[in-house]
Design goal:
With 427 residues, the chain is of the alpha+beta class. Helices cover 20% and strands 36% of the residues. A 6-stranded mixed β-sheet has the order 2-3-1-4-5-6, with helices on both faces. A 6-stranded antiparallel beta barrel has the order 7-8-14-11-10-15. A 6-stranded antiparallel β-barrel has the order 16-19-18-17-20-21. The radius of gyration is 24 Å and the shape is globular. The N terminus and C terminus are likely disordered.
Length: 427
Amino acid sequence: MTTTVENSIEEQQTLSIVFNGHVDHGKSTLVGRLLADLGLVQPARIASVEAICKEKNMKFEYAFLLDAFEEEQDQGITIDVSQVRFRSKKRPYRIIDAPGHKEFLKNMISGASTADVSILMIDAEEGVREQSHRHATILSLLGIKTIIVVVNKMDLMDYKQDVFENIKTQYSKHLASLKLAPHAFIPMAAYVGENVVKRSDKMPWYTGKSFLETLDALETPALSEERPLRFPLQDVYKFDKKRVYAGRIESGALEAGQEILLLPSGTKTRVRSIEKWHAPAQTRAAVGESIGVTLDDPVFAERGEMIVHAASAPQVGTSFIANIFWMGSEHVERGAKYTLKITTEEVECVVDSILKVVNSSTLEEVAGTSKVVAKNEVAEVILRMKKPLAFDSFDEITATGRFVLAAKQQILGGGIILKQMVPFSAI
């Protein structure tokens, strides 16, 4: 039976992927074909889809392997964000099959906000479309840097190299304008399985990896032990005179005997021991591990405090600039108050300034000096907290640079930290 610790490590090893692209460019087909070729789809499920397709007098659709509702099959598009977990020979994956239709753009934003990698799909026959540009722009606003571009339906273009190269050249220019450097461009025919799991012999001019080989070759961002230590406390347990400071390491590694710094309090002490529930004490723990530590000094600390190394400490302050994506029904206005949740910390914050608002459907900046952020819009804002907070920019450490905004126990939006403003200023 898998233990809680093993589940935690498994989650840290999981690479999260979001699929984006214009409607009908083949996102769901690629995911369905990938799972089928890996033998991860039950024969009964395939038989059920075959029966539905036959009843509707249409060819077999791999996309229907993912669709949970017959209504979606009737419309031919995936309406909601579908999360599919699977494992290759190398590691586990979490696939977010984000819809491409502009009416469902908010789901694409919410899905992409938690992804490590984005797959941008382009139909070889239709070429680069408006949504192709739009999705790339939103991904840049959400801070996703690892992008793989799939040029799909190459079978409809007789697998011609010039078709692929023209799309690659055109789209590369747009990505470069957003300061995005794609990890790979892959020509593919997802429906017939060319370049999905194995290299295709239909495109000998392509010398790169197949889609799955490309994914397996990526590094898992969360697993870098070389990154600075970030250990947010979830709780502090007292056993007689013993205090155990518990949490999960989000970045880096920690060793018994090391000097550590608690932020934002600024307390310095040393790690006496590293412990796990019903397990022997250990001398070292790394990213992804849920642990408890005892300290040389019984310092006061509470949930939300972060254990770090002084030489590579995060920023501490009461304000920062961030990109937020908004899903709440009520508009965001200057002066609005929310609960900001980042790692294990929750703190009241106020919207100090709204610097820029972008309509996520048109990607046009909203004009006017009195700016508000409406539902499904993306904005650059200054947030000011009621007390000091330890954090990083999203580019530096993802886990401590990503947050959500809530009110009345409901998540209304989220965002990524761009940079610190004025440290230790008061609201």
